[in-house]
Structures are given as C-alpha cells and as structure tokens.
Amino acid sequence: MAEKMAMAKAINESLRRALDTDPKVLVMGEDVGKLGGVFRVTDGLQKDFGDSRVIDTPLAESGIVGAAIGLALRGYRPVVEIQFDGFVFPAYDQIVTQLAKMHARSLGKVKMPVVVRIPYGGGIGAVEHHSESPEALFAHVAGLKVVSPSNASDAYWMMQQAIQSDDPVIYFEPKRRYWDKGEVDTEAIPAPLHRARVVREGTDLTLAAYGPMVKLCQEVAAAAAEEGKSLEVLDLRSVSPLDFDALQTSVEKTRRLVVVHEAPVFFGSGGEIAARITERCFYHLEAPVLRVGGYHAPYPPARLEEEYLPDLDRVLDAVDRSLAY
C-alpha cells in the first residue's frame, strides 16, 4: 500500500529493503552509522543491521570509493555516501579512472555494482562546497550512470534499481527536496531507471528538468496557466543516459523547449539536450532551445544564493522569450 513519506525517509526505506533482501549490500560513508548521516537519511540502519553492514568510514572520500571498488570486485554491492556534493572531488580520480573503466578494461568480465550517493544542489543556506551541482562532470564520463530523483516515490524506486545495477550509478539526491513528502507504493512496478516522465501535460512549450528543478517547473507551469499558456513538464530523472526519445516526442508536440537545471548553463547538461533536440527536431522547432541555470561563477555565499539559483521569474522569462518567436 502507498504511504506518504519525505524523500529522505523514502531513501532510508529503500536502503533498508536492499540491506534486508541482499546480504551483499553494504552502506558506507562518513557518519552514516551512529549519527545516521548529516541529513539523517541513514538513520537507524546501523542499529538494525550492524556496523559490518553500515560502516562509518574515515573522512577520506578517495578511500571510501576505492574500498567500494575492492568490495565490488569481491561480489559486494556497496552504497557509498559522499556527505556533500563539493566533497566528491577527492574521490573523482577513483570514480573516473577506476570505477567507470573497470568493466571496459576487463572486456566485460568485471562488474562494478557501486552506488555513489551525493546530496547536491543549493537552497538550504549552506556554506562553501556544500551546494554544488557537478552532475555534468560525471555524465561526461563513459561507464557511469547518472540519475537524480525529484520526488519520494522515484527516490525509493530509483535507489532500488541503482543498487541492482551491475554498472556504477552516481545517485544525486536534491537536498532541498529531502523534506518534501509524496506517496510511495513499495509494491508498485517502477518505470525503467533511465526513462523520463511527463508530470504535467501541455501543448505550447516543454519544460525539461530533473532533481530539484522539477518542482519549480511545475510551479512555473501553474503560473503560466493563469495567463492561458499550456506548458508540458518533463521530468528527465536520468542525466546519463538521457531519454532523448521522450524529449523528442514532447517537443514535436509543443514545438518549443526550455531546459532548467541548477548547475551553470555554461557546458551544462542543458547544452547537450539543446544540441540533440535541435538535430532531431529541427523542422518542428518554432524557437531555439533555451536554457535556464546557474551562472558561470563559483557558488555564492548563502545570503546570495537566491540570486544565483533559477527561480520562477527567470524560468517564466525564458518561457516568454521562447513564445515570442
């Protein structure tokens, strides 16, 4: 039966189910055990499964991922937490040169069923290195899957699917949505991990987003509806691979596309989407694909982050510019 729960709780329940179902699943990270994580996402798991299954690690991201790679080689399915987005870079070498390459290096003989959980994005008034959106850096790396849920139900099921994957999955958790509640049916049949979903039907323009920006795009669509504009909202759910077929289907219907993400627009994932959709839908588009995102600048102090992050007005402005063509 469906139960209403916050996204953080949904991830906790998903990890609990995986730990209970498969003895090869391990949870590792800084403060994930006794503390239950800084956001309490892993709260209670060490108490129920022991410190050999839910492991408090040293403050050493490279060591955490390196140990997970070794465990995966021995048949385990580690789920490692990087405490904040900006802390992932000490582990970037392990992720890019080892984790992402092992399957190809072994000609397919070695699997790497590792999930790297990364709370990411802004909106919580955090200090430096705690509000980054580095998803494009990982999407650029062949051998990695990159996903980001936008709601509690997806958070639950996408974690299940990520753990079951034999390929490494970078699982970006939008920390500003941890406390947003939604219905979670733990007996449902989930959609495929990398399939996008239309969360609001529309006819005049498509808004494409993932993770924290999906809720904002739904708010934009509701505001635009008051002005007689019909906007379709597409939750991409996966950044790599991207569901270009779903994007194409939507754009062929609406003939306009605005891509929204928190990460900087410059060399962001929206650029790849814009290029591919322009190639696929050139004769359907009635306006260029527009992008709304962060600025090409270091993430600002908390008191300025609302000026940096995409908001209702900035997305509506892009909608108006597209519809003006």
From TrEMBL:
It comes from the Bacteria. Residues 5-180 form the Transketolase-like pyrimidine-binding domain. Its cofactor is thiamine diphosphate. The keyword Oxidoreductase applies. Pfam families: Transket_pyr, Transketolase_C. Keywords: Oxidoreductase, Thiamine pyrophosphate. CDD domains: TPP_PYR_E1-PDHc-beta_like. InterPro entries: THDP-binding (IPR029061), Transketo_C/PFOR_II (IPR009014), Transketolase-like_Pyr-bd (IPR005475), Transketolase_C (IPR033248). Gene3D superfamilies: 3.40.50.920, 3.40.50.970. This is Alpha-ketoacid dehydrogenase subunit beta. It comes from Streptomyces pyxinicus.
